[in-house]
Amino acid sequence: MIGATHGxxxxxxAVFPVAGLGTRFxxxxxxxxxxxxxxxxxxxxxxxxxxxxxxxxxxxxFITNRYKHAVADYFDKAYELEQKLExxxxxxxxxxxxxxxxxxxxxxxxxxxxxxxxxxxxLCAKPVVGSEPFAVLLPDDLIWSRGDGxxxxxxxxxxRTGGSVIAVQDVPRAQTGSYGIVATDSFDxxxxxxxxxxxxxxxxxxxxxxAVVGRYILNPAxxxxxxxxxxxxxxxxxxxxxxxxxxxSQQVDAFRFHGTRFDCxxxxxxIEATVRYALDHELLSDAARKxxxxxxxxxxxxxx
Length: 304
Ligand code: G1P
Fold this sequence. Notes:
The protein is α/β, with parallel strands linked by helices. 34% of the residues lie in helices and 23% in strands.
């Protein structure tokens, strides 16, 4: 590949921790995993999967629990449905169903028996990942971008540096308690080596307002560190704490990606993402804009 002259091998494996209970979205998530909630015309998980495939990943590892059959079913081949669509000559729909997992991409499912935290979920991927750099994508963080997806931008950076890369964005200081927060050496506006990382610090304790977004490219050395990581913030085994260990011996860069991140772990984030993707949709955009305008006009009239 052009430009891939030094640094590390291209990241091939993407890990998706999807074992969360999604209690914020009850009652919908009583039967539908939150990763299956739709944003316009695709379930949330599909956006993260498409981003990973665009970045060059061909092995997708889903860390699930015993309640998440719907996620595995979704990525399974739907023979009967495909046959029906084929017979009915519905080529477009057939392509949509088949492209859930394009040819050459494989999905692996690993069960996380106990919800012990994000760090523990990532550790569950160790037997599949082995000893190569890998990506972690938290599907709740939906990243919309006009050009290259966030993970592709990060994979390009990782290939240049040979180190680990973590996506970051600025957040208001009052919100540091919701994120991993990093301090960097020599941040050049887009990237900089992380010197410190803390999980969910209070605004007073936060080393900066640069927050971790759910995209990581990690050196496999993280697994040995996760094996011995103790419970941290919220009583959970935190990925952030293992990364804090990793950066004492290896380069871990913070990377400010181009794109807009929606926190689909919250109601407002889900609404915001739906609005954005509807307005950006090649077929629905104009109609969506009109109906949003109508809704605003009507509701405005009612309220006044
Ligand atoms: C996780 C990480 C946190 C990161 C966040 C991004 O937290 O632990 O460091 O900033 O994702 O979405 P969670 O939101 O799962 O509590």
